[in-house]
What does this fold into?
Amino acid sequence: MLIEPMQKLIHKAKAWHLSRQSTKQDWANWNYLVLDIETSGLDAKHDHIVSVGWVCIQNGVIELDSARHILLENAEIGDNVGIHMIMDSDVERDGKRQESVLRYLRHLLRNRILVMHHAPLELSFLKQSWQAFALPSFSVNWLDTLAIERTKNNRSQQPIQDGGFRLGACRVRYGLPEYEGHDALTDALATAELLLAQIAYQGADCRLHDLNQMGSGKTCFTPR
It folds into this structure.
């Protein structure tokens, strides 16, 4: 009677081992989706998503043809117009159903690793939205460029001033150009460039395993 549970346990152990081994491949053997979310505030339980932007990395190269910037319908702009530069008229004209956008994002992430700058904030809004629309459970592996930069800094023991881990400040340390912030697509592209700069800093033999050691996680989005 214990044979079947034991077989399941062995299968899970083998799958875990294969997953661990695969992460030791060159980082460019994996595909990535770099995501940025613009919101009405910082509390996922009370605020909402205004727009999302993403761009994909494949074979170690940013695919500009994959870039998308989507406004969500019914997004309340209010006083945030001066931050996001999005007008109520833009939302009325171009806003898309949030549930449809989330389903499309889920489809894109099936064979990709999610990349964000300051993952806890982005993930909190995604989780809240997932539950609001009771979407099917879905697991995703992710990298956080902010966490990667913090780990690099801790290893080098170089002091970083307040605000030094913001996206723009991190880019400056790699000589990347300054972009206008608070636009989901621009910030997604800026994060993608930052990730490539961080990888280049690690050296030509950088593996996904190395990036995971610096700032990664796995999250399961559930309907409740």
